[in-house]
Specification:
The chain is built from 2 helices and 5 strands, in the order H-E-E-E-H-E-E. The protein is α+β, with helices and mostly antiparallel strands.
Length: 131
Amino acid sequence: MNTEILLHTKAKGDIGEEISCSYLKNKGFKIIDRNYRKAWGELDIVAVKDKVLHFFEVKSVTTATTSHRPEDNVHGLKSKRLRRIIQTYLAQKKRGLSGESEAEFQFHVLCVYMDLSTRKARIKWIKNLIL
């Protein structure tokens, strides 16, 4: 029997986001928003570094449940929702509207692989994806 505790999907995601925020802060990012929600989607992490806005989608798995690539969950429909929520975020935060220069931003996926038995995690960063 596997000694790892199976985590509820929400709890797994929350832990993965915490790990991701620590990772990004160590890389020099400033976290400016988390879990920005609208009816049509959610942004996990919004950060800034070198005057560039970065949107991060976090996909977390435990080693006990890893039978697929977490980034495969960022598929066509998910990409469409992410594109819409990023546009909403930029409009609501008044970035890139007329009178201001266009906001420079990038979209990334962070895949967090958690080993609950060793309490360690590794992160795979898929950078600057086009939505």
